[in-house]
Amino acid sequence: MRQVTGKGLAAVGLLVAVAVWLVWNFSESPAAFLRVSIIGLQNGALYALIALGYTLVYGIIELINFAHGDLFMLGSLFGMFLLAQSGQDASNPATWLLLIGIIAATMVFCGTLNMTIERVAYRPLRNAPKLAPLITAIGMSFILQNIGLIWNGPGQVSVPVVLPNEVLFTIGGVGINSIPLIIVGVTIPLLLLLTWIVRSTKPGKAMRATAQDADGARLMGINVNRTIAFTFALGGLMAGAAGVLYAQAVSTTRWDQGFQLGLISFTAAVLGGIGNLRGAVLGAVLIGFIQALNEGLPHGAGAQWSQSLVFSILILILVFKPEGLLGEQTPEKV
Amino acid sequence: MSSPTAESVTQVGSGDRGSAAPVLEVEGLRVFYGNIEAVKGVSIKVHPGEIVTLIGSNGAGKTTTLRAISGLNAPRHGTITFEGKSIGGRPGHEIVKLGIAQSPEGRKIFGRMSVQENLELGAFQRTDKDGIKDDVARVFDLFPRLKERINQRAGTMSGGEQQMLAMGRALMARPKLLMLDEPSMGLAPVLVDLIFETVKEVNAQGTTILMVEQNALAALDVARYAYVLESGKIKLEGPAAALATNDEVRKAYLGEG
Ligand SMILES: Nc1ncnc2c1ncn2[C@@H]1O[C@H](COP(=O)(O)OP(=O)(O)OP(=O)(O)O)[C@@H](O)[C@H]1O
Ligand SMILES: [Mg+2]
Fold first, then answer.
1. CA nearest neighbour of A181 among A162, A165, A193, A170
2. Which residues of chain B neighbour A215 with C-beta distances below 8 Å?
């Protein structure tokens, strides 16, 4: 028999309230609902790419890598720098080919940078108390932000959008724009690729083994340091892709964009169950939706409440389901 | 560098172990956790083909000794030599590659992976697909129970089954030297017998074994040579049969007195 607890009742009440709000909005304006949902999906995809970097690293060394959002920011700057160097603009139809090259180069850039950060800043603290690498990560976040500040200047910088930006088709009076679809279309194969790497390749198996028991992994002949570096590289690759796509979606870059996006994505990772890959994607999509619905629906709190909303979700999840939606209740390692 | 003072090891019975060079030689090993010295100058030898056991009471330093050999803890002093190569302080994955595998204390199986995946991880360094398949089959021969649970999540298995898995997984590396840390820990008597039978069988198939045990009686029964560790130091050593009849051992470790 299941015990009905106060917490359980509160959770059910909350879900019912959210459902009522959704139905109310949907019945009033299905078109707005659709438009907003597509934005939500796009943002969810971007959050997912970033959230994976948090969750992979947390999964393997239990570090909240505060610098990860800023790595994503540097990805945006690097990608847009490459784009500017190329001298191309949206008028050239072959630009999307160029963009694929830029995404790939930026992924490699961020992957390498993340590996370097791990090597220089976190590995020397491997056996130190957990607080030490955590504080180092915060310091690393400041360093990366300052690099961004010097590189990009203190303000918002406009960047050319070369992703084809056109209405592809219309559903119920709502024009479906190509950019969100492209972003989702790039993200899904990346997520599948990552899943395949982690699930089926040898380095992926080494990652999962190390995440469960590092000493056990060593006894299997797994090079744990190399495996951790590989994990940072994977997280960096995803952040790099997110950096380019995000800059194209919002057509600006900013030295502190990583702070907000990082926090939201981190929340997504916690919502899904930190350390769990599918959880990070689920959490990211949920938060993308919630945020977009809140900002775009006729009866929503509006954009000024988005931050508060996201952090309320973080607090609620920590109270009601600290292991996250898909996380497992595993006892602390002994 | 301070070397440990002359050890006062009591040799029980004959120390003669044949003319073959030892496959593993630990000399004056000292291991620290922070400032605490857990292993205080341990010297042991394992000759090819032997089952050697390391017995001693809780906290004597048995696990720490095995961890140092496997490269999980760095020795502060002393040498560890395997097949003539100095391996002290090398990272764990290199030591596995050289041919030393361990079924560790606490088993350290990968609880969220299947039995099959755990066994495959045991062969992580190997690339001979066919050989790996053969060895999975061999492990299933040794422990038919594991075969029934091939797709079960290892973490949901019973303690005994997990112990079998830990041992099978270590065998998957095809080690020259297999180290077992308390393989009978927490098992029902029938299973204890099975484990020790398996240890003998694996040894008969050609694997040299270094085994840590609390169950001194059973360990001395299967081992050729034995060391008694006390407070981080080797106190007694000798052929297992000789130690089993030694008064001191019987009083302290075999529950007689
Ligand atoms: N991680 C650690 N940090 C600090 N001290 C430790 C640690 N691990 C072991 N020790 C200490 O080192 C000493 C030797 O421990 P070890 O685990 O090697 O003993 P053992 O002979 O294997 O004991 P048992 O039979 O209980 O397994 C003990 O005093 C123990 O408290
Ligand atoms: Mg022990």
1. A165
2. 72, 92, 104, 108
Q: What pLDDT is stored for residue A2 in this prediction?
A: 58
Q: How many domains does chain A have?
A: 1
pTM: 0.92
Confidence grade of residue B1 (pLDDT, cut at 50, 70, 90): very low
Contacts of residue A280, Cβ cutoff 8 Å, sequence gap at least 6: A48, A51, A52, A54, A55, A268, A269, A272, A274
* Domain annotation covers residue A225: yes
- What is the rounded distance in angstroms from the CA atom of residue A178 to the CA atom of residue A185? 10
Rounded to the nearest whole angstrom, what is the distance from the C-alpha of residue B105 to the centroid of ligand 2?
Answer: 6
- Say yes or no: CB of residue B61 within 6 Å of ligand 1: yes
Domain containing A263 equals 6-320
Query: Does residue A228 lie within any of the structural domains?
Result: yes
ipTM: 0.94
Token pair 């590396």 in the structure block, residue: B173
Question: Looking at the complex, does the CB of residue A173 fall below 8 Å from at least one CB of chain B?
Answer: no
Domains, chain B, ordered by start: 1-99+175-257 (3.40.50.300), 109-173 (no CATH)
How many helices, marked H, and strands, marked E, lie in chain A? 12, 4
What's the pLDDT at B183?
Answer: 94
Condensed to tens digits (0 to 9), the pLDDT of residues A91-140 reads: 676 777 888 999 999 999 999 999 999 999 999 999 899 999 999 999 99
In a domain, A330, yes or no: no
Most B CBs within 10 A among A219, A329, A330, hence the mutation to make, goes to A219
CATH number where A187 lies: 1.10.3470
